[in-house]
Amino acid sequence: MDEKIFTRQADTVKGDKSTSSERIVAGLQAMITDAIPTAHHFAFTGVERFAGGLSRENWSIDATWVDTAGAQSRHLMLMRDASGTLLDTDRKREFGVLKALEATPVPTPKAYWMDDDGHWLGAPSLVMDRMPGQCEYLVLNGTRPLDDRLKLARSFTDLMANIHAIDWRALGLGEVLDIPTDSPSRVELAHWEAEYRRVQLEPHPELDYVLDWLGLNAPKAQAIVLVHGDFKPGNALIEGEHISAKLDWETAHLGDPLEDLGWVTNSVRKREHQIAGVWEREQIIATYRALTGREVNEAALRWWNVFSCWKLAVIQLTAVREFVAGRYDRAFQTPSWLYRPMFQMMESPA
Amino acid sequence: MRPTVEEQLLGTCRILDTLVSPCVTDPYARTLLEGLIGNLRMLTLALPAVPGFLRSDNRATAELLDKLRVNVAPELAASIALALAQPEPDTADMSALDQRNVELRGLFSKALCDSGLTTGLREAALAHMKARAAAAPMRYVSTTTPPKTALTKES
After folding, report:
1. How many domains does chain B contain in total?
2. Helix %, strand %, coil % for chain A, to 5?
3. Are both B57 and B41 inside the same structural domain?
4. For the residues A150-154, what does the mean pLDDT come to?
5. Which domain holds residue B88?
6. Of A145, A329, A343, the CB nearest to B130
7. What pLDDT digit, counting tens, does each position of B32-48 carry?
8. How far is A304 from chain B (nearest CA, A)?
9. Both A341 and A213 in a single domain?
10. pTM for the whole thing?
């Protein structure tokens, strides 16, 4: 299918929620035509759906067309909400974040077009530049030499600090994202508790127990920053020894900087974020402190560690619900593997 | 009964793995198929353990609820007493065992969040939850092949 050229007319499939390549290409052509009415002589090649992406379909497409500015060529990435999705997020917010970040040193793809209600593509979608680099979700424990992996690990913490240092008010993100009116920990907990109640199919005493603890111990934030919300190597592209792009901003929000830090220092995802003996919780916190000048309260960070696991458990329950309803194509189980690590973190002294 | 359920599931996995999977070239479909085969293999091993797990968990949860009920709000204590007075379901009826499990765990959830629980009872509840998590027979099967680890490469 790589070199197949699609020239099908878009209007014939409007409203169709199928995921065929033809349907995606037709919707994309219609969206570009709507944005650039003079565009004509379209050709789409290399159309491929990537295997990754649990919440959205990721399509790689090379597009060419001619408009009043001349011949155009774009290497595009189209991200379209899957029929069964694990994260109910808003494309307008994500588009707004990406547009705002274009003016910052944070490496992000240029966002071109948004189909926020699925008018063109059958489901909410974003179209952006396809950035160079590879997605290597376990790069820190992969086959590269230790020095290279350590350098990348530091780069990821640099990137996190850079995201947290963004002047979100100056970039207008206060109009795109909600400014927390309460402690960010309480805002996030309330959001994910509502999601938990929405998706649970049976009682989960373990998650209720942790929820109770989270409610009793929610910390205050030192600052309100732009939080990525799913900070991990799997949401980045790496080209050579450098991070070429930070992707997947659909969960970005204004919140507590310890939220992202709590995710990467969390014990259950060590293989993604840490390198045994040289880049562990202690080193990550020290580096983050040095980069940001921010104090890291151990009890508050522990809360975010537990919260990140609990949130992951809720996302897995969403997958269970969607699978059972026939809307999601991967079989998930009740996340019992997360329970003991959460209990251990709650019990450990701050 | 031959082929047994286990034999049929394993045979299905073998056919999907050796005959169907090589013909699937689309990367997304291939990843899904690998995940489904992995899940079927997990179920093949887990399925025989599920009734025993439910029986054991129902017994342990009922014992714990019996201890907790003296420290919880009267209305919840009455619900627990009513549930514990019900006869245990037929041990061969998996659906009834599952239904009983949902009922008992629902009450356990409510009892856990009751402020009247003593430290000792909380510890007992925590031990129960840890033991259950360790014994749960069905596990998520990752669809991503783990890379060679650095330790393997460098040591």
Report:
1. 2
2. 45, 20, 40
3. no
4. 97
5. 51-135
6. A343
7. 899 999 999 999 999 99
8. 21
9. yes
10. 0.88
Q: Inspect the interface and report whether the beta carbons of B27 and A48 lie closer than 8 Å.
A: yes
Residues of the domain holding A56: 10-129
Q: Are residues B71 and B28 in the same domain?
A: no
* B16 and B80, same domain (yes or no): no
Alpha carbon A221 to its chain's center: 22
Using CB atoms, pick whichever of B30, B129, B140 lies closest to residue A206: B129
Please report how the helices A298-324 and A257-264 are oriented relative to each other, as an axis angle in degrees rounded to 10: 70
Which residues of chain A from 42 to 71 reach within 8 Å of chain B, CB to CB?
A: 48-51
Q: What is the three-state SS of A282-326?
A: HHHHHHHHHHHCCCCCHHHHHHHHHHHHHHHHHHHHHHHHHHHCC
> Mind telling me how many Å the CA of A125 is from chain B's nearest CA?
18
Task: Indicate whether B57 and B84 sit together in one domain.
Answer: yes
- pLDDT in the model for residue B154: 28
Q: What contacts A8, CB < 8 A, 6 or more positions away?
A: A22, A25, A26, A29
Token readout for A326 is 């026939």
Chain B residue with CA closest to A213: the answer is B113
Number of helices followed by number of strands (H, E) in chain B:
7, 0
- Write the CB contacts of A263 (distance below 8 Å, at least 6 apart in sequence): A230, A231, A232, A269, A273, A304, A308
Q: Please answer yes or no on whether A51 and B27 come within 8 Å at the CB atom.
A: yes
Say which of A51, A143, A205 has its CB closest to residue B129.
Answer: A205
Stretch A31-36: mean pLDDT, rounded? 96
β-bridge partners, A49: A59
Size of interface A-B (CB pairs under 8 A): 91
Whether pLDDT at B150 is above 50: no
- A331, A336, A343 member nearest B35 (Cβ): A331
CA distance A113 to A107: 18
